Amino acid sequence: MKFAHLADCHIGAWRDPKLRAVSNKAFEIAIDKCIEEKVDFVLIAGDLFNTSLPSIESLKIAATKFRELKDNDIPVYAIAGSHDFSPSGKTLIDVLESAGLLVNVAKGRIIEDESDKSKSRLMLDFTVDKKTGAKITGLLGKRGMLDRIYYEALDLANLESESGFKIFMFHTALTELKPKDLEKMDSAPISFLPKRFEYYAGGHVHIAADVNMEEAGYKNVVYPGPLFPNNFSEIEKLKHGGFYIYDNGLLIFKEVKLHETVCIESDCGHKTPQAVEQMLRDSINGISKESELNKTPGLNNAIVTIRLSGKLEAGKISEINLNEIFDLFYNSGAYFVMKNTNALETTQLTEITIDASKPEEIEENLVREHIGKIKVSAFESSGNETERNDKEKRITQELLVSLGNERGEGEKVADFENRVREEVKRILDI
Ligand SMILES: [Mn+2]
Fold first, then answer.
1. Can you give the pTM of this predicted structure?
2. 50 CA → ligand 1 middle, Å
3. Alpha-carbon torsion, ordered 311, 312, 313, 319, to 10 deg
4. CATH superfamily, region 2-256
5. CA of 206 to the centre of ligand 1 (A)
């Protein structure tokens, strides 16, 4: 049996058209490789699109590639991820499924406990791959661990007792696999997942990692990470994206590399703006010389990140002529140049900066800091303090998602307003 495991494709990501093109191309290349490798099927563990209402361009890219897989008799099994859900709970995964381009394997039933609702169980069904007989199931992912309730209600016994070659798909952070720099990210213990499956196809955490915890009952727990890094710090950390191929028990990470990545980090402490410029010019020359010497691509067609930090000796940040520096990079053949000066300070004034981590994390921190600070009658009636805080956190996060949504393509203003109103009513339970 041979299959591919992709996650966090984020089709349509990046505001800049040049980087969006790279990100979208990474998806196309990954699918081409799946066809070339003649895999039996493809798994997509959530976040296929970057937003729940992607552009027509993004939809076209996905539909075209899925069609090519279908023509090659390669089925696609998917689950929805945190970015795939519109606040009304709908996802384009369902549209693609209706069109016969993929199968959503997060299917099941809720067995209600009439006397105690909290004891209701979620029973998942398996989707059986015709060609290989592989049995695939999984759970969708929701932002801010809103999927936790599904895991808590998940009936593990029926999943574990099923025989055969089983794959579990999930879109959530597992505590045991979380890297140090994502410590603050909410996560679930691996014991939330059913044991003794052959493969656990993860998504959500943007790292490439595979672990074998067979003694604990969890073999082949895998995160492929994104197909292309999703933001500045991910480019620095990951350099490139990729996906996994499972080939008869063997795990192979397939890197998807369209451009070289050159990451420059400079400490500007005790330097003047002019000295910083000179330092950057020197690094351009250094990279160019080295690439000539070693016959490496150097800056040619590279994506360049420049991170500046430290306290300038004198002058303002704006006195560093970064436009000129950018031009020098482009003249040396760079494909795209970007900067991060969040940790750059001057002696003149301290700017307020927010760590350039993911917007979700910033949101999460702000929500956590403000919890319980405003009296809301709806929260006061229910349970103890922890329960009230949990409820407030959940409602705040759902409202943020809902109110942050833009008008859909072709959606009338009145319909959009109505939709937002209905969603907010649903969230607030009024
Ligand atoms: Mn993602």
1. 0.80
2. 8
3. -160
4. Metallo-dependent phosphatases (3.60.21.10)
5. 6
